[in-house]
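tokens incoming
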């Protein structure tokens, strides 16, 4: 009956009524995985509606509707082809949204309009997560070979794909003379230390104090000065500290590891950075009071503290065992439960005891980390609860932006069950096939992981 009512709204003469009908259908598609198959065919013709607001609503709803959107990729590609003509306009145009959707669907037809817009002097924002496929990678490599200057917009996309994009590294290196800063950043994110990128990495470090760039300069050249300058700036609180680790420095904790938590989150991040360095040099004993205080302080800093405890526990569980009671207190915190569960597992707590917090984490804001933690810990005890979530028609987004759900096509719970199934038991989830002892057809295009710990894993 709802479909009949909404279909009647789409045939209304008033554009506002048509737009409201599309909005209602799109909202239903976002919340129920069974809805797109019913509603998308009803509103997809509206991408050619004479009213621009109705067209925009339809294109936006398609972008969020799930994998069924792929059935209408040809219609979206026709809209995306007009993107170069409007690339200079302010705001999110229909054509821009239409470009983003093939990006999420692993359809290479976004590449041509994006490159054409860049050639005309525009810099398209491709911050949307691009879904990997061999076809898309091959098209990007072909484009870079023909015109290496287009690495200015394509390098950032390739950088998202990790080891899946290894074949494109030579193409990126060849583009360094044309678009050095963008390619240097992409190679850095891909984990490739390239000597010809060092001038651009030095410039990035000098401009922003970027720790990964400074570390890369040190690894490639042996010059530690940019790294030391970055640490000095960070530890003097002139910039917010990222959660990364570097050993080999001395008394960086002076004045920071006070045994109490600093007042603000950025200051606590600095404390945890100092704790990482001091623990690497002198062992964890001296840092535990401060780490304990930050953990007890809760909020997002506690997540970073629990992450640090997990890392310390991996090398020496006994050294941080006294923090177990505080970690258990964080299992009820939706922001921190996953990091706390990882740390507790490293301390020897059985994953059966941690199954409920791990499963609850699927629907939290840190849901994507819950999936990763379940796989890392081989928490097979979560399977029954995860299979219940898979059977539920509700969506459980494991990312912050609901618009990206089109790149998943199913809930985060299904991704977790499929991946844990690689470890625990035979299971088939959509086009994810797993066998006892290892995955044979599990790939990032479906479950989103490139580092499954199960024997026999391969990244397709």
């Amino acid at each position: 009956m709802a479909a009949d009512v909404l279909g009647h709204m789409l045939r209304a003469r008033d554009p506002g009524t048509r737009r409201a009908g599309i909005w209602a259908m799109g909202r239903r598609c976002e919340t129920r995985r069974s809805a797109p198959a019913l509603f998308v065919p009803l509103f997809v013709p509206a991408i050619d509606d004479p009213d621009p607001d109705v067209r925009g609503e339809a294109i936006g709803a398609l972008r969020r509707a799930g994998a069924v959107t792929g059935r209408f990729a040809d219609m979206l590609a026709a809209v995306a082809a007009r993107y170069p003509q409007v690339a200079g306009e302010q705001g999110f145009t229909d054509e821009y949204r239409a470009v983003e959707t093939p990006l999420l669907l692993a359809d290479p037809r976004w590449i041509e309009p994006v490159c054409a817009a860049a050639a005309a002097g525009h810099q398209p924002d491709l911050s949307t997560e691009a879904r990997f496929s061999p076809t898309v990678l091959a098209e990007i490599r072909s484009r870079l070979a023909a015109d290496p200057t287009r690495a200015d917009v394509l390098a950032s996309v390739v950088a998202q794909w990790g080891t899946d994009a290894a074949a494109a590294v030579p193409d990126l290196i060849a583009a360094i003379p044309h678009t050095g800063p963008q390619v240097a950043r992409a190679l850095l994110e891909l984990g490739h230390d390239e000597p010809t990128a060092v001038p651009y990495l030095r410039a990035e470090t000098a401009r922003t104090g970027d720790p990964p760039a400074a570390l890369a300069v040190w690894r490639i050249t042996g010059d530690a000065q940019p790294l030391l300058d970055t640490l000095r700036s960070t530890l003097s609180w002139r910039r917010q500290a990222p959660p990364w680790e570097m050993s080999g420095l001395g008394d960086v904790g002076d004045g920071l590891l006070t045994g109490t938590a600093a007042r603000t989150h950025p200051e606590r991040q600095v404390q945890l950075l100092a704790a990482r360095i001091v623990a690497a040099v002198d062992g964890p004993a001296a840092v535990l009071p401060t780490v304990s205080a930050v953990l007890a302080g809760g909020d997002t800093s506690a997540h970073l503290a629990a992450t640090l405890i997990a890392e310390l526990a991996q090398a020496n569980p006994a050294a941080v065992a006294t923090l177990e009671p505080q970690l258990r207190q964080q299992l009820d915190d939706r922001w921190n439960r996953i990091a706390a569960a990882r740390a507790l597992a490293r301390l020897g707590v059985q994953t059966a005891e941690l199954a409920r917090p791990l499963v609850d984490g699927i629907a939290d804001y840190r849901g994507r980390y819950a999936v990763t933690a379940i796989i890392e810990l081989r928490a097979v005890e979560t399977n029954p609860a995860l299979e219940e979530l898979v059977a539920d028609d509700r969506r459980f987004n494991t990312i912050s932006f609901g618009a990206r759900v089109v790149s998943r096509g199913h809930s985060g719970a299904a991704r977790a069950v499929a991946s844990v199934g690689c470890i625990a038991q035979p299971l088939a989830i959509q086009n994810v096939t797993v066998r006892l002892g290892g995955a044979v057809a599990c790939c990032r295009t479906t479950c989103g992981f490139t580092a499954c710990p199960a024997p026999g894993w391969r990244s397709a």
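note: The radius of gyration is 24 Å.
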